[in-house]
Give the backbone structure.
Amino acid sequence: MSFIDGRRKVIIKSDDKTWVFKAVDGSVIEKPEEADEKLTAALSDFAKAQELISGISQEKITVDGKEYELDIERLLDCTIGDLLEHTAEVNPDGEALISFDGTRRIDYKTFNERATYFAKYMLSIGIGRGDKVALWMANGIESMVASYALSKIGAVMIAFTPYEKQDRMEELVRRSQVSTFILYRGAKVHENIEMLADDMYPEIKTQKYGELNIEKAPLLKRVILVDATDEFAYPGVFDFNKALEIGKSLPDDDYNAARAAVSVKDLGYVIYTSGSTGFPKGVMLSHLNIVENSYSLVEQMGLNESDKMCMQIQLFHTFGSTVSGVTSVSIGIPIVLTSRFKPAESLKMIERERCTTVCGVPTMFIGFVDEMKKNPDKYEVSCMKKGIVAGAPCPVKMVKDIEEIMHMKDIIVCYGLTETSPCVSATKPSDTPETKGSTVGGIMPGVSVKFIDPETLEEVPAHEYGEICVKGYSLMMGYLGDPEKTKSTYTPDGWLRTGDTGRLNDDGYIVMGDRLKDIIIRSGENISPGEVEKVLNSHPDVEEAYVIGVKDYKYGEIVGCFCRLKKGSQLKPEELRAFCVGKTPTLSIPSYYWFVDEFPLLNNGKVSKPELRKIAEATKDQKEKIEAPKKK
């Protein structure tokens, strides 16, 4: 029996009475006073027969001729912090976190101790259950320690991309209501701490740590910096390692009480994801969402204690924090942390560390394949066997390249959303490349899927394409601070609408169709057309601009734009692209530009983006792809 399954409970309510049983053997944990013994025994057998996956259902049972209506909840009673505590207990000397260059390595005992020390420090400054803390950090030992420390005491990790632009970062901070910022010095030429203190919140340079009074971010009171050297020893900044030292010296009483108070249904992570219009939405995921989905992927990938994870995707993405991170911690395998993906460097690291498991978006695997084609004898990476490719279409040719050139025969393809924690469906390691490249696999345990007509919301006939809708334990708690958007994402009967279309084939696997939403997905990252259109339309020579996704083998999609210029304008595509630099993330800046006199319209007078996409596909080969300017 695994640790995870040992933490499963079955909660049964009937006639205003509640029984709680261990799921694996039906033993009684709690029962009502003077409970009927025959009924309790029957419920125990019923509980033992339940599927070992979180979910709810209604059933009936008859005992001694009397029928009982039952409300049943299958619950995995295990938090993110519980996973690390358990792994450190059973595998204290096992390697846990390894820096990309291999020079820094800590075992699970040390990982857990540091997370505990930082958790105790956070409690000492008033951070506790439900408090929101920002991590503006790439993958690294400190970012993992901070993340799990927050989970241990019920605080909420809000992870931001370390490559975010200033304007959007300020709005993210305001909307997220964070009181504390934790960050590395930076991920770019311009340090993030410099952006924070010089450009965003200069009060950090003059006001006291813990007592910040920032007009643009009134809830932000403190900044914790890894390696707060003299250059960045501002009054409003505290050093991460000093926080660990303080936490180590503090008693355990408050920490133990805080740990005991954390519930699996508490908010664990807020992960930002872009929609088709407007600002990114903060997806709220519970400990239950995260732990249950990650454990199901352990089994789907066939992971075991002999594996070693190459964690390429960053913490601000569920593919990183959940699929790569929590899965690894749950079974106690080493995690090699990649702060930024570069194929040649990553392949060298994989060869050195003998990583067996690599999860990534198709673009990353294309990068690996291209590098290995160019240098077929340079890398000895036969150790790579398992992993997940997801986040964008993965055609049959790509799967064959991954299996034949990278020798990853056990790779699986998944489909999911941040809003579903994330995995909805997955292929099996044993499936053929044709199956992996033409479907996104079978529906995951505990998850239900149906296909509806997006207009009528009625289910479509079997094997016909419809909008994919999802139900089950994995559904998000909602969008942070946006109940209206949350409500509109669900059908009246509680199914989450994905905005993607698909159907089931004869094998019960999902075959993907078109996307209903305008959202663009490049290298697994969501791009909001509306956000990019705002930037383009702010150029003085642009009368009207619309953004669409253009199919691209390497990235899945890249951004293209159709613009109507003001009369007499001589604006060139290169000039318009240069205008966008610094105003929107680099991956959001259009690579293709169509200057037009008019746009195709729908019957309601709106611009037809499906028609724009058709025009783009038909003419893109005649257009120059304008790449991002090279860094100096």
About this structure: Residues 136 and 183 are 5 Å apart (CA to CA).
